[in-house]
From TrEMBL:
Keywords noted in UniProt: Hydrolase
Chain span(s) of sequence motif HXTX 2: 115-118
EC numbers for this chain: 3.1.4.58
Enzyme class: hydrolase
Lineage of source species: Bacteria, Pseudomonadati, Pseudomonadota, Alphaproteobacteria, Rhodobacterales
Function in brief: Hydrolyzes RNA 2',3'-cyclic phosphodiester to an RNA 2'-phosphomonoester.
Name assigned to this protein: RNA 2',3'-cyclic phosphodiesterase
InterPro entries per UniProt: Cyclic_Pdiesterase, RNA_CPDase
Species of the source: Ruegeria marisrubri
MF GO annotations: 2',3'-cyclic-nucleotide 3'-phosphodiesterase activity; RNA 2',3'-cyclic 3'-phosphodiesterase activity
Entry-linked Pfam families: 2_5_RNA_ligase2
Amino acid sequence: MRSFVAIPLTDDAARALAAVQRRLDVGRRVPRDNLHLTLAFLGDQPEETLGTLHEELLRIHCEPFAISLSGLGQHGRAVHLAVPETPPLTDLHDRINRAVNRAGISLPRRRFRPHVTIIRLKSGTRLRRLRGEVAGFRYENMPVDHFALFASTLHPEGARYECLMDYPLTASRDFAGS
């Protein structure tokens, strides 16, 4: 099953990003329900392995925190908003990577560049000009109080995501295995 671990956007943040998508008026908008910040793309994994990962993800405990979205950019066919790295976000990313490794999933080593993809462009398309208010878009202090394991099914009109399990962020006195 094609899957990934991500932070879903709040309704308020998703509404704000939908307004940015409309202003850009290029490419194919990522559906509001699909907006997320990927923490680990897992590729195709057997259900048994995802079950093991689920057990590992349940062991993650950390305090809720907030992120900001800004810095409209393009990487390949994806138009995205950057998410500045913060110690809590980096810590959650690292904890998830350790859980993924303990579950027996090998991921390629890549630098963590947190972002939220908002538009997919046709191959070879480049954003030439950004309207002033869109280029300077910022969404501050989106609360992060959970992350989720998603299944991704590819379709001609785009990927469809299904939340398999939600993991609340809660502090714990027992950090063993976190």
